[in-house]
Specification:
By secondary structure, this protein is mostly helical. It contains six helices and no strands. Helices cover 69% and strands 0% of the residues.
Length: 90
């Protein structure tokens, strides 16, 4: 029934309905209709990623890589966030 409801929707709303369900799609529509929305490629903020990096960084390149992969940031960005944080602490 849920998929059938989604098939009555226009364009992208049908695809959204398949992902999050008809009721959630109508909520999204009611709240954002008429707006243009783009989704940044980074889901997590740099501030959050820094806090997670501080918790899990063990001084190795491997841990930098794991953090970068987990949060979809480059290793270079993770290093920069950590280095900037260390310099602020001094």
């Amino acid at each position: 029934m849920e998929k059938e409801k989604g098939q009555i929707l226009n364009g992208v709303y049908e695809a959204i309905s398949e992902l999050i369900g008809f009721d959630n799609t109508t909520k999204l529509y009611e709240n954002f209709r008429g707006s243009q929305i783009n989704f940044p490629t980074k889901l997590f903020s740099k501030e959050f990623v820094l806090q997670e990096a501080i918790k899990s960084y063990d001084g190795t390149a491997e841990s930098i890589n794991k953090i970068a992969v987990k949060y979809n940031y480059s290793e270079r960005t993770i290093r920069k966030l950590l280095n900037d944080h260390l310099h602020k602490m001094k």
